[in-house]
Amino acid sequence: MPAKETDLKQQLKDGRLARVYFLYGEEAYLAARYAQMIADKAVGKDSFAEFNLRKFDGTDFSIEELEDAVEALPLMAERKCVMVRDLDIGASASTADRVQALLASPPEECVLVFWMDAVQPDMKKSARWKAFSAAVDKVGCVVEFPKKTAGDVAKMLCAGAQRRGSSMTPEVARLLVEQCGNYLNLLLNELDKLCALAGVGGVTREHVEQAATRSLETSVYQLTRELLQNHYQQVYEVLHRLFYQREKPIMILSVLSGCYVDLYRAKAAASAGVPAESLAAEFKYRGREFVLRNAARDSARLSLPTLRRCLDVLAQADTQLKSGRADEERGVLEKTVAKLIVLAKSGR
User: Fold this and answer.
1) Over the chain (348 residues), what is each successive 10-residue block's mean pLDDT?
2) How far is CA 229 from CA 117, 179, 224, in A?
3) Predicted local distance difference test score (pLDDT) of residue 190
4) Which residues are within 8 A (CB) of 228 and not within 5 positions of it... i.e. 6 or more apart?
5) Residue 141 contacts residue 22 (beta carbons within 8 Å)
6) How far apart are the first and last CA of the chain?
7) 114 Cβ contact list (under 8 Å, min separation 6)
8) How far from 46 is each of 11, 52, 310, CA to CA, in Å?
9) DSSP-H helix ranges across the chain
C-alpha cells in the first residue's frame, strides 16, 4: 500500500532512507521535488556528491547501464543515489523482468529512486505496474501524490508567501488557483512573481487579477460565463484575445466543450436532486470541486435539452476542425460561439 506524503516527509526529517523509492501520481511536481530531496539526503553536499549521484531518463537508457550504476560502489562515501525518471515498466516485459530482478536484493549502499513525471502508471489494470509497485514496497517505499484539493493548494500558497517575505490570505490564494489552474509548478512560479511585486504589503486580489497569468482553462471559463450572462461583446473579446495569444482553435474548443460537459453534469445532478459536489469522485474533479459548484450555479440558466443541443454543436465543430483546412479554423470557432449564443438566448 502506498505511503502518504507526510510519512515520506517524516522519514526524510529523521534521516531514515529506504533502499528503493517509487514516486508517482497526478502531482508530478511533488514527485520531482521529493526525488531531489531524497537524492540530496543520500549523497549530501560534499566534494564527492556529484560522483555518487547518477540520473537516468527512462525514455532513453539501457537497462545494463542502470544495473551497473546500482551495483557500483560509492566513491569515498557511505552511499550513493541512482535516480530514474519516467521508466515505463508497463511498456517492456524484458525491462520489467530485469528491474524485478534488481529489486529482489538491492545493495545496502545504494538509494534507488524511480519517479514519474510524464508517465502515469496504470496501477489498476497493468499487471507489470502492480508487480513493480509490490516489489518496491517489499524493500523500500512507494508514495503516490494524488491531486491536491483547492483548499490544500491554497494553504501551500499562503505558507509559501510567508517564506518569500510576503503574505496572502486564503481567499486570494483560492482566486489564484481559479485563475491559473490547479498546477503546482505553474502556481509556485506565479507566487514568486506576485510576492516580488507585492513585497511585505502582501499579495492582494488586485495583484492576482492584474498580474497573474490566466490559463487557457480560465480564459475559456470566462468566455463561457460571459456567454451565459448574455455579455456577447465580452465573449468575442475573450475569443479574439485567445487568437492573439496564438492558442490553437482545437485546444480552445476542447476546453470549451469541457466547460459545457461540466454544466451538463451539474444540471443532470440538480435534476436528480443530487449535490453537484457529489460528482467529484466519479468524474475526477478532486482538487477542482469549485468547478462543479460554479457549473451548478451557471447551469441554472439553461435546460437539459438546451445543454444537449449545445453539446451537439460542439461535437459538430470538433469534426469540422479535425477534417477542415487550417485557414478555416478561426471561422469555425467563431460560428460555433455564435450558435451557442443563440441557444443561450433561448435558454429553455
Assistant:
1) 86 92 92 94 81 90 91 89 93 90 93 93 90 95 89 92 95 90 84 93 93 86 88 90 89 94 90 81 74 86 92 95 88 94 82
2) 40, 19, 9
3) 92
4) 298, 301, 302, 344
5) yes
6) 49
7) 20, 21, 22, 23, 84, 87, 136
8) 22, 10, 62
9) 5-14, 28-43, 63-71, 93-104, 127-139, 150-163, 170-180, 184-198, 205-211, 216-228, 232-244, 249-271, 289-298, 304-323, 329-346
Phi, psi of 212 (to 5 degrees): -75, 145
State the Cα–Cα distance between residues 199 and 10, nearest whole angstrom.
Answer: 32
- In order of 54, 295, 308, 347, the CA distances from 302 in angstroms are 57, 11, 10, 5
Question: Which residue, chain included where needed, has cell 560522483?
Answer: 51
Q: For residues 266 and 301, is the Cβ–Cβ distance under 8 A?
A: no
Report pLDDT for 144. Answer: 94
Each residue of 250-268: b (16+ CB within 10 Å) or e?
Answer: eebbebbbbbbbbbbbbbe
pLDDT of 272 reads 86
Q: Which residue has the cell 547501464?
A: 65
Amino acid at 84: V
pLDDT attached to residue 287: 65
Residue 169 DSSP SS3? coil
Instruction: Compute the distance between CA of residue 49 and CA of residue 129 in angstroms, rounded to an integer.
Output: 31
Stated pTM of the model: 0.68
- Which pLDDT score is estimated for 142? 96
Measured CA to CA, the distance from residue 279 to residue 286 in angstroms comes to: 9
Cell of 206: 488586485
Query: CB neighbours of 34 closer than 8 A, spacing ≥ 6?
Result: 5, 8, 12, 23, 115, 143, 145
| Chain position carrying cell 531531489 | 36
Residue carrying C-alpha cell 483547492: 150
* List of residues 6+ apart from 198 with CB closer than 8 A: 166, 204, 207
Amino acid at 209: E
Longest dimension (CA), the chain: 76
State the pLDDT at residue 325. 86
Per DSSP bridges, beta strands 80-85 and 110-115 are parallel
